[in-house]
Amino acid sequence: MLGPALAHAFEMPTKMNLARDEYFVLQQVYRGWSSFSLVLVVVQLIALVTTAYLVRRDRRVLVPTVLAILFVLGAQVLFWTYTHPANVATANWTVPTDDWARLRRIWEYSHLARAGLQALAMTSLIIAVVSRLPTRRRGYHYY
Hints:
Helix 1 packs antiparallel against helix 5 (100-131) and helix 3 (33-54) packs antiparallel against helix 4 (59-89). This protein has 143 residues and is an all-alpha fold. The mean pLDDT is 92. It has one domain (2-8, 32-130). It is built from 5 helices and no strands.
């Protein structure tokens, strides 16, 4: 989920300067995404929990894997607390409201925060993988 999260983060500066009608038109590119993203999140969490179970005896791998799970869950909390209510209030950005600018700020900044949490989750997984690599002791040499 890091790819879509980063896409939101990188497009944010441009989108924040759009007028209301332009913003609402642009938001239509996300139609249908919610169903697909839900599947991705479920698959992501199943993979992470399965990994944590499989490496439960190796603390070097388990701790960063559990951290990755917590970061992903944190991103979900942000979505359901901030992003989703903005989607509901605007009927998925098809019905302009009087407070659309406030809702846009909430929507965009919640995506930015979620991108940060997804990046931390990926970093944790990289740490987990690297911790499994053999060290240079015992004659192993990796370049």
